Amino acid sequence: MSDFSNSVDVFPLNGTVLVRVIASSKKTSGGIIVPATAKDVPIQGKVVAVSSGIYENGTYRPHELHEGDHVIFNWKYGVDVFIEEQEYRLIKESNIMARLEGVNYGEN
């Protein structure tokens, strides 16, 4: 988890992923900025950690998402986590709406 300092490690459990929030606000066509905390606003982020897998209905399965994937999710799901002034979201993989390919935010 290279996105963290040496002092903090986060290990998601049972089907959760930790996503670093990249795009946290939306601008309307009229120029009004809607904060990410508004419900039903799609947010973009980068997966920085995943749990060991998902256990449901007596069966274990691996995640579809992996560290480094760029995703879109709805702000109303999950929990805010702030680590060293960086915004993250701890969210169930099943609440992530899409995985993005070919995205480059000018980062690793």
Task: Summarize the entry for a quick read.
With 108 residues, the chain is mainly beta. The protein is built from no helices and ten strands.
Task: Write structural notes for this entry.
The chain is 0% helix and 47% strand. The protein is mainly β and 108 residues long. The chain has one domain (16-100): Roll (10 Kd Chaperonin, Protein Cpn10, Chain O), CATH 2.30.33. The strands form 3 sheets. A 6-stranded antiparallel sheet has the order 8-9-1-4-7-10, with no helix packed on it. It has a two-stranded antiparallel sheet with strand order 2-3. Strands 5-6 form a two-stranded antiparallel sheet. A hairpin with a 5-residue loop joins strand 2 and strand 3 (33-35).
Counting structural domains, the number is 1
Q: Count up the helices.
A: 0
Would you list the SSEs in sequence order as H and E?
Answer: EEEEEEEEEE
Give the N-terminus to C-terminus distance in angstroms.
12 Å
Write the CATH homologous superfamily: GroES chaperonin
| Principal-axis shape | globular
| SS-based class | mainly beta
Annotate the secondary structure layout.
Blueprint lengths: L15 E8 L1 E3 L5 E3 L6 E9 L3 E3 L2 E3 L8 E5 L4 E5 L2 E7 L3 E5 L8
Antiparallel strand pairs: 1-4, 1-9, 2-3, 4-7, 5-6, 7-10, 8-9
